[in-house]
Structures are given as structure tokens and as C-alpha cells.
Amino acid sequence: MAARAQGADGVELDVHRSRDGELVVHHDADAPTLGVLAEHDFGAIRAALPWLPTLAETLDACVGLLVNIEVKNSPGDADFDPEERAAEAVVALLAERAGRDEILVSSFSLPAIDAVRSLEPSIATGYLTVLDPVPLDALEIANGRGHGAIHPFYGTLSAETAPGIVSRARELGI
């Protein structure tokens, strides 16, 4: 794995569900030549895109690294699922793996990470933000919902704002 070879301590990856519930690692909801992953069973995905790994395969390759699993499930996504089945599947997979992975589950979708916290409070969760909410508000939201991290868009941080954000995060234990 290239990240390990380059000395990385961890990796971030994005997950989506196939129609039959397999978690696959891919940035976008759709894949070249195939379309929206959630519209295909995993067998069809594997046949069309043999290079596309499952989350389990990726976690096997990342043993010893921190893995930030980003659950992609925002209302504008082509594979949006209001039932949060991808978050549920992540929790189930991690339970099967019996704690052998160092994991943080993150999402731009509060319902996704709320689902993870509700199903298994011991899994570390992080709230991803872009411009709204701003980092200080995101800290309060994350803290109120039991999430231990925020990942703000770097463009919202500056030499003027970062010290106050870091100070508040330390106060909250985030």
C-alpha cells in the first residue's frame, strides 16, 4: 500500500453501499463505465471494476494504520439513503472484525455519524464541514451529539480564527 510505504500513520477513504449491501471504497457515488454503485449488486461491480475494493479488503490492507472511514450519504448524493444503511453496515463490519482496526468514522451527514454513535458508542466519530456550519458552531454540534472530532474545511481556518477554534476544541475534549 502506497500510504504505508510513504510513512503515513493513517488513511482516509470513502464508502458507498452496493444494492445488495456490500461496502465498497470509492470517492464518488458513481463509477466510470458502471454508473451509480448503489444500483448494482456487488457481483456486477466486481465484474465491471475488479480493481474496486470492498471496505473489508481495504481494512485488511490497512492493519496498523488509523483508518478514517468517510460515510458518503448526503441528500444531494446519487445514492442518498435516508435509512443510513451504509452507516449500519460499517458498524456491523467493524463488529465482525472485533476491534482489530483503529477507526474513525466521519461524514458530512450528521444523521450518518449519529447512527454510528447510536449503534456503537465506542466507535470514534467525526463531523466533516465545509462552510456551514463554521468550525466553532461545528464544535458545539459535535459535542452535543457525542462526536469526538470535527474536520473543518481548511478554507475556514486562518491565523486569526484557528487559535480560538483550537482552544474551544480543547475545552470540549474534541
Describe the structure.
Helices cover 36% and strands 20% of the residues. It has 7 helices and 8 strands, in the order αββββααβαβαβαβα. The longest helix is centred in the middle third of the chain and has 12 residues. With 174 residues, it is an alpha/beta fold. Helix 4 runs parallel beside helix 5. A 6-stranded mixed β-sheet has the order 2-1-5-6-7-8. It has a two-stranded antiparallel ribbon with strand order 3-4.
H and E string: HEEEEHHEHEHEHEH
Question: What strand line-up does the widest sheet have?
Answer: 2-1-5-6-7-8
| Mean pLDDT metric | 96
Rg, nearest Å: 17 Å
Quaternary structure classification: single chain
Main sheet specs: 6 strands, mixed
Helix percent band? 25-40%
Alpha-beta classification: alpha/beta
Percent strand:
15-25%
Distance between the termini: 30 Å
Give the strand tally: 8
Tally the helices.
7
Q: Regions with pLDDT < 50 over 5+ consecutive residues?
A: none
Shape type: globular
